[in-house]
């Protein structure tokens, strides 16, 4: 499954997946065959960081 490249659409896509389907960012990245570092850096570039406790980017 291809993930969105636009950072703001990516944010919505990832947070929805985390809320509805995955217990952690690691589980999401493994299932979607996505590099966690690339994903987190992309979202960090627009001001969002992963909150492990909430299981979402904020």
Describe, in plain words, how this protein is organized in 3D:
By secondary structure, the chain is mainly alpha-helical. The chain has one domain (7-57). It has 3 helices and 2 strands, in the order αααββ. The chain has helices at residues 7-20, 25-31, 36-44; strands spanning 50-51, 56-57. A two-stranded antiparallel sheet has the order 1-2. A hairpin with a 4-residue loop joins strand 1 and strand 2. The longest helix has 14 residues, at 7-20. The chain starts with 6 loop residues before the first helix and ends with a strand. The mean pLDDT is 97.
Please supply descriptive tags for the structure shown above:
single chain; 58 residues; two-stranded antiparallel ribbon; 3 helices; 2 strands; 52% helix; globular
The largest pleated sheet is described as: 2 strands, antiparallel
Shape: globular
What is the SS-derived class? mainly alpha
Mean pLDDT across every amino acid position? 97
Strand percentage lies at 5-15%
Radius of gyration: 10 Å
Oligomer: single chain
Q: Helical residue percent?
A: 40-55%
Number of domains: 1
Topology pattern, helix = H, strand = E:
HHHEE
Please specify the SSE layout and strand pairing.
Blueprint: H1 7-20, H2 25-31, H3 36-44, E1 50-51, E2 56-57
Antiparallel strand pairs: 1-2
């Amino acid at each position: 499954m291809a993930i969105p490249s636009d950072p703001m659409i990516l944010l919505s896509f990832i947070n929805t997946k985390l809320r509805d389907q995955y217990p952690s960012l690691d589980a999401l990245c493994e299932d979607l065959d996505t590099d966690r570092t690339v994903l987190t850096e992309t979202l960090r570039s627009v001001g969002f960081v992963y909150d492990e406790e909430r299981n979402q980017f904020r």
